[in-house]
Specification:
Bound molecules: zinc ion
Low-confidence stretches: none
Shape: globular
Distance between the termini: 27 Å
Helix content: 25-40%
Oligomer: single chain
Strand content: 5-15%
Largest sheet: 6 strands, parallel
Order of helices and strands: HHHHEHEHEEHEHEH
């Protein structure tokens, strides 16, 4: 329902010209760059994966559609479009071999690896979902040409991301209830670090659960902060594709719209 209301918001607003497209089909080969064959096969399981991540009828189709949208977003970014995949389920907690935390297939990691496979030399993923993307870190760890940057509440689910990992995963944990201004400072430092990596393409794990009134976390951001984050991303001047992760408040439509205005420079 949150996504349906976000679609409605984006379809009825008049400030941004938006072109809509549907996700395409996904080859197993793309998924298997990031996940084990066992994980892919287990999507058909009728047993719940964990308390947050149930087995649903047709979840394999939904998860694959979400991957398809992330891949399409990545390709659009390479052609100079600014694009957001507005899909569920999210992906950043899904590790190479484990489905967890609402996440079945790791959309952003699969798209990042596809980009490398398709000739991109350096791809960065930045993750501003309030939770650490343990799955993305697990999949991209020490992969040549890839780097991962995450700003997230710690302590919080899944209790990872307290320190950097390997030679390419950079974590910026922030305490619960960090004032917005300080969060922005940490975000700016994260972007400085990302700039040093000199990516030619950036994937964004766009989560909106660092919002002050999100029920799943304790951060303090307002809609205008997501606008600010979007503007900061735009100033990098590097092609970027955005993939929805979390965001559980009723205000999700406003938060997504604010972010899109920021990355579009409106
Ligand atoms: Zn989250």
């Amino acid at each position: 329902m949150r996504i349906e209301r976000t679609v409605e918001k984006l379809r009825t607003q008049t400030e941004l010209p938006i072109v809509w497209s549907k996700p395409g089909a996904v080859d197993d080969a793309s998924i298997l760059r990031a996940h084990t064959p066992e994980l892919l096969a287990s999507l058909k399981s009728t047993e719940d994966f964990d308390a947050d991540t149930p087995a649903y009828p047709r979840i394999a189709n939904y998860a694959r559609a979400s991957v398809g949208a992330a891949l399409e977003a990545m390709r659009c970014a390479r052609q100079g479009e600014t694009v957001l995949s507005l899909m569920r389920p999210p992906g950043h907690h899904a590790t190479r071999n484990r489905i967890m935390g609402f996440c079945y297939l790791n959309n952003i990691a699969i798209a990042a690896l596809e980009a490398l496979h398709g000739g991109v030399k350096r791809v960065a993923v930045i993750d501003f979902d309030v939770h650490h993307g343990n799955g993305t870190e697990d999949i991209l760890l020490n992969r040549e040409g890839a780097a991962y940057f995450s700003i997230h509440q710690y302590p919080a689910y899944p209790e990872t991301g307290r320190a950097n990992a390997g030679n390419n995963c950079f974590n910026y944990p922030v305490p619960p209830a960090l004032p917005r201004g300080q969060y922005r400072e940490v975000f700016s430092s994260t972007l400085d670090q990302l700039g040093k990596f000199k990516p030619e393409l950036i994937g964004v794990s766009a989560g909106f659960d660092a919002y002050a009134r999100d029920p799943l976390a304790q951060e303090t951001l307002e809609a205008e902060d997501f606008y600010w984050i979007g503007k900061k991303m735009r100033t990098l001047g590097i092609p970027l594709f955005n993939v929805l992760e979390g965001g559980y408040s009723r205000d999700l439509p406003e938060l997504v719209f604010s972010y899109l205005k920021g990355i579009e420079g409106k």
